[in-house]
Amino acid sequence: MSEPVVLIPGMMCDARVFGPQIDDLSRDHIVIVAPPIHGETIRDMAGHILDQLPPRFALAGLSMGGIVAMEIARRAPERVTRLALMSTSPLPDTPAQATWREPQIVRASAGRLAEAMADALAPDNLAPGCGRAAVVDLVNDMAHGLGGEMFVRQSRALQRRPDAQRSLQKLRIPTMVLCGAHDGLTPPRRHETMAALIPGAELVILPGAGHLPTVEQPQQVNIGMRAWLDMPSEHL
Known about the structure:
By secondary structure, this protein is α/β, with parallel strands linked by helices.
């Protein structure tokens, strides 16, 4: 596979959330990190990223990045050669989920970003163990760098996001759906349903990871991504 690999980080994350994958894949692939930081909606964000990308590329998205990746694949299916969806969901926010975000938005707007992040990604959505504290520190550092205004904008985009289920059924490219067993935000059952919608999709559930498997179980994710990049497309 000669196309570049495009990585889209999740909400309030920068390239460091893919740090281990960048280190591994950049040995023999061109790797592009495309954060969803421009635009007011998921469609705006997808359009802005798409304008910056080469004609054809492999695409991987984590969490909110997966939602943006699904929109990119829907909008430009002829340009996406393969797709990896990690810790994400094709479903729109329910009324309850949209309401859950409101106090977080208020806190972030009032300069209390740390409190907003503690609610948006509670530590129990990460796998238990000695590595959890380091992941929480990384999450908080990435969020601090992006700031409260970005939190509000990305939260609003998530509240208004479209339903992507129908577009997933139309995919005809090698696709991997990956999640952590301890992910309470986008649980394994949701990934099982998502994988069932996509023709030929490979489902990977990592027992030692939660919502951020790329940094919780980096070596396992690296293995999964290399297997995904080697998936043949002829049978689809």
